[in-house]
Write a structure and sequence with these properties.
2 domains, Multidrug-efflux Transporter Regulator, Chain: A, Domain 2
Length: 258
């Protein structure tokens, strides 16, 4: 006959665990002997080991009792169901790990190849990495919103790089983090965006980029928090009749300068 400490040691658990199994009814608690101690037999050791193995395999304790008392066929069926659940959980965890790996690997796996190619072209143009990182994060959100259209959008972005205004815009914003808010080049950026927005609205090209307004607002808010320069740029654009940068909207016809 075994003491509770010996029983726990045989099964590889703690005494506190044995007492917990007593409390929830998984392991019958023997009567005390004439010396006031509880003693356990071989059947208790076998049952405790089975409890420990099932619990270690991920079986909820609420189900362990039913398994222990089930007939062999029922036991096998329940174990099969638990195994199927565990395999499904393993697949879910593996998928989660793959997604984390993509995020850790950077833009090459977190973004479509068309966006990565565009960002690489900006690098070759000399656009600074801090700005590319900001634009990359925005494209991650946009690509998730419209995955079926992102390649066409990026093709248009490549065409836009033939526009002198766009090239000048990138050369300016790449340096803007170092400016004071009252730097006159901030107004130049606002003028460029004003011209680009006007041309886009007139040509109908804006309709090809129907980003959800709430998403655009979130991206604009993130841009505005970048620096005082960004905040002033938003204000200057509003003076010129535009609200937002990611998807600029005309505020009122009276403020348009075309």
């Amino acid at each position: 006959m075994l003491t509770i400490s010996q029983l726990a040691a045989y099964a590889g658990v703690t005494v506190a665990t044995v007492r917990h199994y007593h409390k929830i009814g998984l392991l019958p608690e023997p009567e005390r002997n004439h010396s006031g101690y509880r003693s356990y037999d071989a059947a208790a050791v076998v049952r405790l080991i089975r409890i420990h193995v099932l619990a270690g395999a991920g079986v909820p304790l609420a189900q362990v009792g039913d398994l222990l008392d089930a007939e062999p066929d029922a036991f096998a069926e329940q174990v099969h169901d638990i195994d199927a659940r565990l395999r499904a959980e393993v697949r879910r965890l593996q998928d989660t790990r793959k997604r984390l790996a993509r995020l850790a690997a950077g833009e090459q796996l977190a973004l479509p190849a068309s966006v990565v190619g565009y960002l690489d072209r900006l690098r070759r143009m000399g656009v600074r990495e801090w700005y590319i990182e900001k634009e990359r994060d925005a494209w991650i959100v946009i690509a998730a919103q419209m995955p079926e259209r992102i390649d066409a959008i990026m093709a248009n972005k490549h065409e836009d790089l033939n526009d002198p205004d766009v090239l000048r815009l990138y050369s300016l914003v790449s340096e803007a983090l170092e400016w004071a808010a009252d730097d006159p080049r901030v107004a130049e950026i606002a003028d460029i965006l004003d011209r680009m927005n006007a041309r886009s609205l007139k040509s109908g090209k804006r309709d090809d980029f129907e980003l959800d307004h709430n998403v655009a607002a979130v991206l604009d808010a993130a841009s505005a928090e970048t620096s005082p320069v960004a905040q002033r740029l938003f204000a200057l654009l509003e003076e010129r009749g535009w609200k937002g940068i990611v998807r600029s909207e005309p505020i009122s016809p009276g403020k348009r300068r075309w």
